[in-house]
Design brief:
This protein is α/β, with parallel strands linked by helices and about 200 residues long. Helices cover about 35% and strands about 25% of the residues. A six-stranded mixed β-sheet has the order 1-4-3-2-5-6, with helices on both faces. The longest helix is centred in the last third of the chain and has 18 residues, at about 160-180.
Length: about 200
């Protein structure tokens, strides 16, 4: 079984005119292939920026990639999405929408609750905090929790806005696509599937 990607890969699917995210964006992380054996888990992340034009919502920026490193978990992919956003943030306002409560809560808790050696995925959080400091400090970035895997009924009942629902869905699709960017060996996967 090939190892996961070890170095970060940032792939623009939709390149914004400025080359960076200008304002609010939505991010997501996803884990695939590990339902029977976590050694097969591969994760990806995606950040999208949308714009409403009349009744339609258009994707104006989309960045995705596989989660780098040997530890492949959905929370790490979710946090890496935030890292990708802050590293590719252009002009404020800086607003990151996530469907991961852990990412939203961790950001609010700050560096002392996320960046120490005893904290899970502290390596990612240390890089987030360094870049957030470059952007002007924690107060300049809002991390907003949105409902995951929402339906039109959720929109009708006010649990999520229509634009947030569409953007979150785009980020989810992109994160799943990004997880497939890891090196793979279809023959190994087929052999393993036969033993399951």
């Amino acid at each position: 079984l090939p190892l996961p990607t070890m170095e970060p890969i940032y792939k623009w699917n939709v390149v914004p005119p400025s080359g960076s995210f200008e304002g609010a964006a939505h991010g997501d992380g996803s884990a695939l292939f590990g339902s029977r054996d976590e050694a097969f888990t591969r994760c990806g992340w995606c950040v999208v920026q949308v714009e409403k034009r009349g009744a339609l919502v258009h994707c104006v920026a989309s960045l995705h990639g596989p989660l780098p490193g040997p530890l492949q978990t959905s929370p790490a992919a979710e946090a890496f999405g935030l890292l990708a956003y802050v590293f590719h943030a252009g002009m404020p306002p800086y607003i990151y929408h996530t469907d991961c409560q852990w990412v939203a809560s961790s950001y609010l808790a700050g560096p002392s609750a996320t960046a120490g050696a005893q904290h899970v995925h502290a390596d990612i959080w240390r890089r987030v905090w360094r870049k957030v400091t470059d952007l002007g400090g924690a107060h300049v970035l809002a991390v907003v929790k949105v409902k995951a895997h929402s339906t039109m009924l959720d929109v009708e009942n006010g649990r999520i806005g229509a634009v947030d629902r569409i953007a979150n869905s785009m980020a989810d699709i992109g994160a799943k696509k990004a997880a497939t960017m890891h090196p793979s060996d279809p023959a190994v996967m087929r052999r393993c599937e036969r033993t399951w």
